[in-house]
Amino acid sequence: MKEKNKKTDEVAKTFDIRKNDFHNSENKGKKTEEEQKAAENTQTNNIQAINTDTAQNNQVQNTENKVEEQKTDAEKEAAAKAEADKKAAEQKNKELEAQKIQKELSEQKKKEVEAAKKAQEKAEAEKKAKEAAAQKTAGRRYLQVATLQTEAAAKKVAAQLGGNFTVQAIKGSSGRTMYRVVSASTDNPQTLSAMESQVKSKLGGSYKYIVRTAGK
């Protein structure tokens, strides 16, 4: 009986040992699984953290890229506006210069027209004056008494003849100034005859004078 109990105790001990080994092995397996799960969780958390950091970095980079793009777009718009303003200013300057030239040409043309008009008016006035003078002197005659080289000599002759005789300065063919003694013009034959008698009485009956038509 004791032997049987001893064997029973040995079997029980063996069972307990195996049971403990089984439990230890099971616990060890459980611990390994827990550690693996913990490691997996840690790895997952690390991956999630990395992904979060990556996403944040990407977001920051995207934001920076957008800011840079906006900055670049703003610079492009500013450059385009500056170029457009420059071209507009150049075009305006060209238009102003063209207007200035056109104004100068218009003023020059106006001056030329006015000058031509004045010249025409002057020519017409001179023509009318000549016609009036011709009408006034038509049929009038005068005496050309003498042509002398000095004004003093001519005045002396005119004074000798008395009234109705004057001195005229004229340009000779050589360009030299000559002095002519002439009588007043008249359309009355009797007055002309009286002046002829006056010349003959003062300068001698044989003195040669010329009877001229006024205006010629």
UniProtKB/TrEMBL annotation:
Keywords (alphabetical) are: Cell cycle, Cell division
Query: What GO molecular function annotations does the UniProt record carry, in alphabetical order?
Result: peptidoglycan binding
By what name is this protein known? Sporulation and cell division repeat protein
Q: Where is the composition biased (Low complexity)?
A: 41-55
| Basic and acidic residues bias: start-end ranges | 1-38, 65-133
Q: Where is the SPOR domain?
A: 135-213
**Stretches the record annotates as Disordered:** 1-139
Q: Give the species this sequence originates from.
A: Pseudoleptotrichia goodfellowii F0264
Q: Name one GO biological process term.
A: cell division
